[in-house]
Design goal:
Chain B: GO terms for molecular function: ABC-type transporter activity. Chain B: This is ABC transporter permease subunit. Chain B: Keywords: Membrane, Transmembrane, Transmembrane helix. Chain B: It holds the Pfam family ABC2_membrane_2. The complex is a heterodimer of chains A (293) and B (838). With 293 residues, chain A is an alpha/beta fold. In chain A, 33% of the residues lie in helices and 30% in strands. In chain A, the strands form 3 sheets. In chain A, strands 6-7-8-3-9-10 form a 6-stranded mixed beta sheet, sandwiched between helices. Among the domains of chain B are: 245 residues, no CATH class; 107 residues, Up-down Bundle (Four Helix Bundle (Hemerythrin (Met), subunit A)), CATH 1.20.120. With 838 residues, chain B is an all-alpha fold. In chain B, a hairpin with a 6-residue loop joins strand 4 and strand 5. In chain B, helix 2 runs parallel beside helix 12, helix 12 runs antiparallel to helix 13 and helix 19 packs antiparallel against helix 25. Chain B contains 33 helices and 5 strands. The chains are: A alpha/beta (293), B mainly alpha (838). At the A-B interface, helix 2 of A face helix 18 and helix 26 of B.
Chain lengths: 293, 838
């Protein structure tokens, strides 16, 4: 068991943030924790890493209680940049981790190079931009080659090229067999990284493997949408008129080839065709905004 | 401008600074008031006791006059004195009865009756030792004022009335302490903007730089005004609410200077004080803003401001430049009121100074290069190598030290302390030389005066006596004259002996032989004490301090025995057992005597002694507490850096211990550095000093009465003493100081486990230390030795003063070291428990 969270409760005053929350990660995978602002994502990550005490519940990391500092030999937690000492250099932070975790100078430089922060490693953090600080935080997180990597908004403040680089690094880490638990607001980035989503809604978790529930739809522009809707009723698909001669076809069991053949057989002209896969953003809307997609 | 002002005040409000200010003031004043109420039960007793010397004096005079009356020796004047002394006795009796029955409102009138009789008695050439000079003037002035304004007697030592309590707290809070408090709370108003780069946010708005600075300055003045109002308000309100007292703003305030006395109303005194404080405040804030424009960091700005004020204060003191033109003289509020020198000019000059400094601030160019510099690369520690073999605790300590180094504050603090020490030592050296030169000049003048004036005068007298003796045949007259001849001969011999000892002492001193010089001083002590012949009146024999006499004699004997190089001035060693009378004149006499006999020396060891004697060790303690005292809180504020440490494989206990150890290490190493510097300066410019120089150690009554006591038991109420070699004494002080610093660190660390605000942690640490010290002295009585706070005054602990005053022989250095160590361990233990539960 990599991470086991059982019956966690957390309240701040009268406000209940987490309600009897449980989930487990048994095998290496990349999991995204998604929820609106103030839903308790960071609180949950802080509870997992024992930075904040839960009111009740049990958490185990690699079968060890999360209360034991030893968990951080194989776990890293990338937090927001308020944990950085402004007056220290990036290298000072990494050197301390090296001292504590028994890592060499070469390992520090390799990690920094992997993230791409060699150029400003010896400057004080107070001189760093937001993106540079994210790079440092990520370097600190990967430095000890952890089995479990917990990341709080890892792509915040990164420019597109940095974001692509970090995304690739996360993929590399995942392919190396690491488990990654990340929180993010950026749902399109989440879609690019993983299909394993934990929606945090009103203190409860809704776990989804979007790859199992993924639905494909085709937006087809035809010359007669009413007729097309009628002819496709006999197929194992869902059809919805979208307006402007466009219909949305949800593929339940039938194939695209059958659908197009049927339209052609009924003299309906296909003017345009777009394929869409429902992702985390659509599920997010379903879960949090009650929209039927 | 108004919008900016509102914005600034809103920021201060949001930062909860006003809350902290109010909390500190309320806590401080409530505690002070509570203390005063605790002493109210003894007020009548104290008042009654204060009339005891009068009663004793009246009784004695009455007895003497009665004796003469019985022997029919009363002359006309004495007969009249006899009448008035009886009036005095009767008036005193009425007065004391009224005190006993707590008729406080009648007391001024009854005291007046007594003073009237006393005046009549004095007019008849009577002498009344219990009330003379300034004391008499003070009593008469105050009594007249009390009657004119129809006032009752109040407890002025522990006031609980609104007007007197307000003055008592005002004396403390409207002084340097108040300025320090305000600077500490609001001092980062400008530098924090530059530090956190919000300065650019302000500068990218359509606002002039001058408006930003002025709005900040006016905000500071608003806070100063708020502070004054709050102190006045709480000072008045607490007594009114809790004790239903009336506000009497015409209650008299007596102001003593060296040879004059003035009386003003409480309202006038308080207005003077508030106005002067306000003046000092606006100067301080203008200086702070100016310095904040030069330094980028809040810490550096504050330290630099304090440094400038300290140097200014010191230069003002030594140059005696006491005028409103000197901006640093504005901080000597008490002196200005006492001297009554151009008092109304001070607020005016304060405003002019403030305007001038603010104008400079507005036009001074900013150090923008530092603000925008993003290129600077820092060197790495230990060539960038890592070392996990050291263990988590040592690595955490090293990390804490690296953090301190990177912050740069440590070097600033050390540089400032270094400067202070060098400058301070320079003045000490000058002062020591001056005192030594003056001492020898006085000796020389005395020898010349004796040889050229006194001996010839007495020889002439002797010649006249001898001539009369030869010429008279009357046996009784011859006997009478013979007495004079013998006496005068003895005086001449004493003078000759004195001159001889002076000449020998000085000559031998120049040759580096100290014994003759100590013999000279020993001779002087005995002479002043009247050991040779009380009737000679060679020097007025009014020296009446038995304990001091015995100490001074033994000190010289010790110095002779151990061949100690003399330290100047004064032959005497003033002590805590010297009774100068509990009255203003007594205080003045005590101060003058202590100043005359206060030894100053710039040798290495004795400079270190001054470091403890003048409580200078508290300055680094305060600065380091300011630098390192945040403990956990410093990492749990807006910057939550503690989470970085807590997500490493190290326990919270290790992190805490790492902080405690690193801070203790910094404290102790810095103290060692500072003391070595003092020793070094003393040694190269003067000499190392005598390890065996005698340092007085008071022994408590309980220890002098114990079996096997080896010190000297004096004739003064059986109090005892012994001497400790200076070197040993310093080692004791150093041992206590090290343990004390560890206690301060662990205490602030402990407080930081449950308070997240760094400033609040520091304030609470200081409050706990000071109130703990006070409570230990006042209330713990026989258990005081177990309180770690009692050892805060390590100078008095190491020389036995504390043990003697509390009659607790267990209050000593060894017990102090053990108590401080155990207390620190307990604090660490409880902190770890709290952290584990957190």
């Amino acid at each position: 068991m990599i991470l086991d969270v059982q019956n966690v409760h957390k309240s701040y005053g009268k406000e209940k943030i987490l309600k009897n929350l449980s989930f487990a990660i048994e095998e290496p995978k990349m999991v995204a924790l998604v929820g609106p602002n103030g839903s308790g994502k960071t609180t949950l990550l802080n509870i997992i890493t024992d930075l904040v005490n839960a009111d009740s519940g049990v958490i185990k990391i690699m079968n060890l209680s999360n209360k034991k500092p030893e968990i951080f030999k194989e776990t890293s937690y990338m937090q927001d940049n308020s944990v950085l000492y402004d007056y220290l250099t990036g290298y000072d932070h990494l050197q301390f981790i090296g001292d504590i975790q028994g890592l060499s100078k070469q390992q520090i430089f390799l990690a920094a190079e992997r993230i791409g922060m060699e150029g400003y490693l010896f400057k004080k953090v107070s001189k760093y931009s937001l993106g540079m600080k994210q790079h440092l935080l990520l370097t600190m997180a990967i430095l000890n080659d952890p089995k479990l990597l917990i990341l709080d908004e890892p792509l915040n403040g990164l420019d597109p090229s940095s974001a692509i680089r970090i995304r690739n690094i996360l993929w590399e880490l995942y392919n190396e067999g690491k488990t990654i638990l990340l929180s993010s607001h950026n749902l399109s980035e989440v879609d690019r990284l993983t299909s394993h989503i934990l929606f945090l809604k009103e203190g409860h978790l809704i776990a989804e493997d979007l790859s199992l529930n993924q639905r494909t739809l085709y937006e087809i522009t035809v010359n007669d949408p009413r007729a097309a809707e009628k002819y496709l009723e006999n197929h194992n698909v869902g059809v919805k008129h979208m307006g402007n001669n466009q219909i949305a076809v949800f593929m339940h069991g039938d194939t695209l080839q059958n659908v197009l053949q049927s339209l052609l057989d009924n003299k309906i002209k296909v003017l345009d065709l777009n394929k869409k896969v429902t992702g985390s953003e659509d599920r997010y809307q379903m879960v949090f905004e009650q929209k039927d997609v | 401008m108004m919008n900016l002002l509102k914005f600034e005040i809103k920021k201060i409000w949001r930062q909860k600074k006003i809350f902290w200010l109010l909390l500190i003031l309320i806590l401080f004043m409530s505690f002070q008031y509570y203390q005063n109420t605790l002493h109210q039960d003894s007020f009548i007793d104290r008042l009654y006791e204060s009339t005891e010397p009068l009663k004793a004096n009246v009784t004695e005079i009455e007895r003497e006059l009665d004796e003469k009356r019985v022997n029919n020796q009363l002359n006309e004047l004495e007969k009249q004195q006899s009448v008035y002394i009886k009036d005095m006795k009767a008036a005193l009796q009425h007065w004391r009865s009224a005190i006993y029955s707590e008729e406080l409102h009648n007391l001024p009138q009854l005291e007046h009756e007594f003073l009237k009789s006393l005046q009549n008695y004095l007019n008849k050439d009577g002498e009344f030792e219990a009330l003379t000079g300034l004391n008499l003037e003070y009593v008469i002035l105050k009594n007249t004022w009390m009657i004119d304004h129809n006032l009752s007697i109040e407890d002025e030592d522990y006031p609980i009335s609104p007007h007197l309590f307000m003055l008592e707290t005002g004396d403390l809070l409207f002084g340097v302490l108040g300025i320090i408090l305000l600077l500490l709370i609001f001092g980062n108003i400008l530098s924090i903007e530059r530090e956190q780069q919000t300065w650019f946010t302000l500068k990218t708005q359509p606002i002039k730089k001058s408006s930003i600075i002025l709005s900040k300055y006016f905000t500071l003045i608003s806070m100063l005004f708020l502070y004054v109002v709050v102190v006045v308000f709480i000072g008045m309100l607490l007594p009114i609410i809790l004790n239903d007292h009336h506000l009497l703003l015409n209650y008299p305030q007596i102001i003593f200077s060296e040879n004059k006395i003035r009386i003003i109303s409480s309202l006038t005194y308080f207005l003077f004080k508030s106005l002067l404080f306000f003046g000092a405040g606006i100067i301080s804030f203008s200086l702070l803003l100016l310095i904040s424009m030069v330094f980028k960091k809040s810490f550096s700005s504050l330290i630099a401001t304090f440094f400038v004020l300290l140097i200014g204060h010191y230069l003002t003191t030594i140059t005696d430049f006491s005028a409103p033109m000197n901006l640093f003289h504005h901080y000597q509020l008490g002196d200005i009121i006492i001297e009554n020198r151009d008092i109304w000019y001070y607020p005016l000059f304060a405003v002019l100074w403030a305007i001038l400094i603010v104008l400079i601030t507005l036009y001074i160019p900013e150090r923008q290069a530092d603000l925008l510099n993003a290129q600077y690369q820092k060197s790495v520690f230990n060539s960038g190598d890592t070392n996990s073999k050291r263990g988590a605790l040592i690595n955490t300590v090293i990390f804490e030290l690296r953090k301190l180094f990177r912050k740069g504050y440590f070097l600033q603090v050390i540089s400032i302390l270094f400067l202070l020490i060098v400058i301070g030592y320079f003045f000490l050296n000058q002062e020591a030389d001056k005192i030594e030169t003056e001492y020898f000049k006085q000796l020389n003048d005395e020898a010349v005066a004796i040889q050229e004036e006194m001996i010839p005068m007495y020889e002439k007298k002797l010649f006249e006596y001898e001539d009369r003796y030869e010429k008279t045949n009357d046996k009784s007259e011859r006997e009478y004259i013979k007495k004079y001849i013998d006496g005068t001969t003895q005086v001449i011999n004493l003078y000759k002996e004195r001159v001889e000892k002076i000449e020998k002492g000085v000559k031998e001193y120049e040759l580096g032989n100290w014994e003759a010089f100590h013999e000279l001083q020993l001779f002087t002590i005995k002479l002043v004490n009247g050991d040779f012949d009380e009737s000679l009146h060679y020097i007025e024999h009014n020296f009446d301090h038995q304990f001091q006499y015995e100490v001074s004699v033994e000190e010289k004997e010790w110095s002779i025995k151990n061949n100690i190089q003399p330290i100047f001035p004064g032959e005497f060693r003033p002590t805590v057992h010297d009774d100068w009378g509990d009255n203003p004149q007594g205080e003045i006499n005590r101060d003058a005597w202590e100043e005359r006999n206060h030894k100053v020396n710039s040798s290495g060891l004795y400079t270190l002694y001054h470091f403890y004697e003048y409580y200078l060790y508290l300055i680094p303690l305060g600065l380091f507490l300011f630098l390192l005292g945040g403990g956990y809180a410093a990492e749990r504020g807006k910057k939550n850096t503690i989470h970085f440490l807590q997500t490493q494989p190290i326990s919270k206990t290790t992190i805490f211990l790492g902080k405690i150890l690193s801070s203790s290490l910094i404290f102790i190493v810095s103290y060692i550095g500072l003391m070595v510097l003092l020793l070094f300066l003393g040694t190269i410019t003067d000499r190392f000093g005598d390890w065996n120089f005698p340092i007085l150690h008071y022994d408590s009554l309980s220890s002098t009465s114990s079996v096997g006591y080896t010190g000297t038991i004096t004739d003064y109420e059986n109090y005892g003493f012994h001497f400790t070699p200076l070197g040993n004494y310093l080692l004791k002080c150093i041992g206590l100081l090290f343990m004390l610093t560890i206690l301060v660190i662990t205490l602030s660390g402990f407080i930081s486990t449950f308070i997240k605000n760094t400033f609040a942690v520091m304030v609470f640490t200081v409050l706990v230390l000071v109130s703990g010290h006070f409570i230990s002295i006042e209330y713990l009585s026989k258990w005081a030795f177990l309180s770690p706070f009692i050892y805060l005054d390590l100078f008095k602990v190491s020389n036995g003063t504390m043990a003697t005053l509390l009659d607790q022989s267990l209050i000593n250095t060894t017990m102090g070291i053990v108590t401080l160590f155990v207390s620190s361990c307990l604090l660490v233990y409880f902190s770890c428990i709290i952290l584990k539960r957190d």
